[in-house]
Amino acid sequence: MAGIALLLPKESLTHLAQKGIEEEGYDVKEVKFILTANAIGEARRAVAEGASIIIARGYQASLIEQYTNVPIVKLKMTGQDLGILVKKAKEIVNKTCPKIGLVGIQNMFANIDYFNDIFQVQLMCYFGNKTENLQNAAEKAVTDGVDIIIGGDIAVLVAEQANVPHLFLECTFDSIREAIRTAETAIYAAEIEKKHMAQIGAFLENTFNGIIRLNTAGYILCMNRVMEDILQKKEADVYLKPLHEVITDVDEKQITSVLCGESDLYSSFIRIKENAVVFILTAVKVDEVIDSAILSCNIIRKKVKLEADAMKEMYLHGFVAKKNFTSLKFKDKNMQECVELAKIYSLSTSPVLIKGEIGCEKNELAECIHNHGLRKNSPYVVVNCSNMSEKQQEKLLFGEENSVKESDSLGMFGAANTGTVVIEEIENLGKQLQYKIFQVITNSILIKMDAQQVASLDVRIIATTNIDLFKKMQTGDFREDLYYALRGLQLEVPSLRERPLDLEMIIMRTMKDKLSAYSRYHVLSQGAKEVLLAYYWSGNRLQLESFLDRMILSAKKRNIEEEYVNKMLVDLYPVIHKKNGENQIVIYKDPKAEELASILEQYHGDRTLAAKELGISKTTLWRHMKKYGISGRFKA
């Protein structure tokens, strides 16, 4: 087979190889005797002259492998050739069980584990990987008192100087034949791979999907032209770069999960440049072992862009969503799953229902869904119809006929045409308006106030609520048809108290932002931090950020302690309960604070008796009273 170059360290081996190749008809491009000092240069020359693979032996093979990228097959002594040499060595020393030193590079030899039993010898191996190591190995064999040394030029020279019998590592054509067959197999496999890659290349360049091939570490190996167009980057610019750095919206953990075999695939919706893209990442397995991975990207059809005047009008009226998914950072697993679901919903045109307590990230998610979807460059309108009559709600949403103001004539739905309408607290809409919104969802029509005027409308509806709409539907206060139209794509936003990791992150990040904004320097004590983490935060993020703003603005000491935080929580958020027909303030306290207060009241504020009851010192009791903000109620 053309393309094989056989480079050998002995002229005798060269003659042996040429004779065997001629007799058995092997197709070898070149057979040449070379000096070790010229091995690297000879290998490069052979490749330049058309060799696709090189056969070499021992130290020469190691040099070529180490210092070039030339494909190489190492010529090994077969078990048969080694057996012949061992038998000859035993005859030379004429001993029953001689000690034979085998010196060379380990990659030269076949398995010799059972030679001692087969030939009744003590075969001792001395391996090295460079000239000086081989010399040291041969000298070690001499020192160990071997009866005879078998090895290459260096080993033979050392043996001669020490007057130790020796044999050169001559091989038969059997070893050369095995190396040629291995090289032929490698060339055949390379040609098959070349054809296979050409077929794959043709497929990739003629598919409508963007394709990226990854290695098992998640680094980009290649991509087709469609993917280059999507990324607006050339293949050379992203070669061997991590996928998550090139496409920042993908989840690095999900990629690793696929590449490790924990997940069969990873699929999601993302935005790349101006394109909405659905992608699937799947692993490529060879004999059940993951060899690589393929990422397939498909561009979702684009919505028609607004005209320049319409865009300008949209911005002037503030009909713009600002948040996007890259700005949302959460540590809580449930919240991360909620965000992933929102990404999936963003590429749909169906309505979305976002349920969560007051102050949760409902509005942020709504903005992200709009900006991640096909309506990104279209109006984003938010309406809240709470505390309005049904007539006022209808005028706001659907407009008023014959109105002088264009905005009043259009209504919010008309203003949001081609974009998104977010209806906050949708449970507060009147039943007649619920029907009209259902018509917008199912038939894309807008019914004007007189119920006769009908216009086509292209909007996506996102509704938010902080109650259970199912219960409201059961009582007859919410239409069944609208409920089920909204319920298909629902997001449940966990409260902040269910997300301790997020709570701590938001506290520290908000503190940093506020301190920077007000050019203040305060340090939150561990105790104060624990108070904030333990608080209920019924208003969630809205309440927390507002509280931190007030806390920093009114702080008079550099260190913010738990006593100060507790007092502020009491002042800002007392709980009102009815008792005997009158409103009474019930102050939120830590359970430990309740225990302290109860015992102090029991002993009428006597700290000595209270400390004795609690089994602590008066000093410790006073410190706890300050910590939980009850020191002012029980004077000394």
UniProtKB/TrEMBL annotation:
Pfam families from the UniProt entry: HTH_8, PrpR_N, Sigma54_activat
SUPFAM superfamilies, per database record: Homeodomain-like, P-loop containing nucleoside triphosphate hydrolases, PrpR receptor domain-like
Boundaries of every Sigma-54 factor interaction domain copy: 328-553
Membrane-traversing stretches: none
Cited PROSITE patterns: SIGMA54_INTERACT_2, SIGMA54_INTERACT_4
GO biological process entries: regulation of DNA-templated transcription
Keywords: ATP-binding, Nucleotide-binding
GO molecular function, one term: sequence-specific DNA binding
UniProt cross-references to PANTHER family, sorted A to Z: TRANSCRIPTIONAL REGULATORY PROTEIN
Protein name: Sigma-54 factor interaction domain-containing protein
